[in-house]
Amino acid sequence: MSASKTAQHPMSSSLCSLQGSLLTLAILTLTSFTYLSLKSLHSPSSFSPHGNNSSISISFHKHDSDSDRDLDLDRASDIYHSPSVFHLNYMEMESKFKIFIYPDGDPKTFYQTPRKLTGKYSSEGYFFQNIRESRFLTHDPDQAHLFFIPISCHKMRGKGTSYENMTIIVKDYLDGLIMKYPYWNRTLGADHFFVTCHDVGVRATEGHPFLVKNAIRVVCSPSYDVPFIPHKDVALPQVLQPFALPRGGGDDIENRTVLGFWAGHRNSKIRVILARVWENDTELDISNNRISRAIGPLVYQKRFYTTKFCICPGGSQVNSARITDSIHYGCVPVILSNYYDLPFNDILDWRKFAVILNEKDVYQLKQILKKITDEEFVSLHKNLVKVQKHFQWNSPPIRFDAFHMVMYELWLRHHVIKY
User: Fold this and answer.
1) With a threshold of 0.85, does the pTM exceed it?
2) Rounded to whole angstroms, how far apart are CA atoms 125 and 26?
3) Which backbone phi and psi does 29 adopt, to 5 degrees?
4) What 3-state class would DSSP assign to 310?
5) Which GO terms describe its cellular component (predicted)?
6) The pLDDT value given to residue 115
7) What is the pLDDT of residues 332-347, one digit of tens each?
8) In terms of DSSP bridges, do strands 284-287 and 332-336 run parallel, antiparallel, or are they unpaired?
9) How far apart are CA 148 and CA 146, in angstroms?
10) In terms of CB atoms within 10 Å, which of 11, 86, 250, 416 comes out highest?
């Protein structure tokens, strides 16, 4: 029977032989690649020149214009969920990712130009400026992976535009792009994105259903209990720049004698509870109002330098610029918000440099913080210093800063778009 089948189908044996050869070749190739990769990672030349064997340096030369082409994988800190995957994907992003910006719209009104690069909504302005200063920009839409819709709701807000008129302006602008260009209709907007830091800007886009359903929304108010779609949308860090004082470093732990600090307006339920429960506590420095400038210059900012844990309760939205203030000044942030998709949460392991609590934990806040040992705090603080570069905007942008982290999030999302 077997010989008969072979005689009747001579091609079958050849095909099986070919498939076996290809499978063997694939296995050998994969084995060789794995061996070479591991060998390069463990070769003496790949270790840090400082002699710290916990840090591996991977060199590459995709862009000759950059001088800092080394990536440090600090395995001891473990601030990334998967350091090797992040760095390899990041390298690919730098060499391949292209964004097309629609050129339409009067730059003197609401399009293409940010309102300003200061204040708690400055992240929107920085992104608008950074994308034009980066290597990711392309003027050829056929080469683009994603399309940026450059309309600034923050700029509209600054000009006094009402929420209702914002919604109309956004809808009319997008409808114009859809009529003029073919790119939106290929995916109904799935390969398009817009950026807005002001929460009003998020609501202003709701006049066009596909902006909510399909387009990638890069926003500063990423709450799970509003139409924010995790793993499609991107959490934009809210950064209050320029910072008034320098970064808090890794050598200032002994100066941090205050257990916890918060001062701000009671514009949310959780802030009201926080102030009511803890404002008279002797170990927590809690104030239900912002510190008056009349007391002295930069008193509020200087408190971050002397505090171990900075309490970050949500305000009118779950997000707060206080989180990135804490990171910048080296004060371990205590996230006290529900339903918050933290910036870069799928890249960074926030529990390695922050304390994540639900709002109901406010009643046991001091007990929770006091249970954190000195060794655990030192680890949190050291990791916090390592992530500071990811929460800093620069002009022009530099590698691994906030702009590049947002671009990496967009790079991850473009892979799921097929057309």
Assistant:
1) no
2) 48
3) -65, -45
4) strand
5) Golgi membrane
6) 52
7) 999 998 888 899 999 9
8) unpaired
9) 7
10) 86
